[in-house]
Amino acid sequence: MAIANRLQNTFTIVNQTGQSLTSLRVEVCNQKFDLGSIPPNGQTSRTYNITTDSGYSVQATLKDGSRIEEIDGYVTTGYYGVRDRIVLKSNRNITVIQSTLW
Known about the structure:
Radius of gyration: 13 Å
Structural class: mainly beta
């Protein structure tokens, strides 16, 4: 089981916007994740299957009503153990920090 867990693909959303996210949706490899709200400096993670080449489509609404909508990062079939961090920043941009085991 430990090996299977290491081979899972995971993304972690980190909220560094300085305010709460009231809604958050991430889509990757045709899989949609409605992640709800995240407090300032909070984070949440999800696992997913890499079924096709894809980027991360992120749609977030901040407490003040402003929105972040961006596509960034890249995953491709044949990758295993992806551990990507998607950081939402105070300038309304995102940064994807990518890490792959294989």
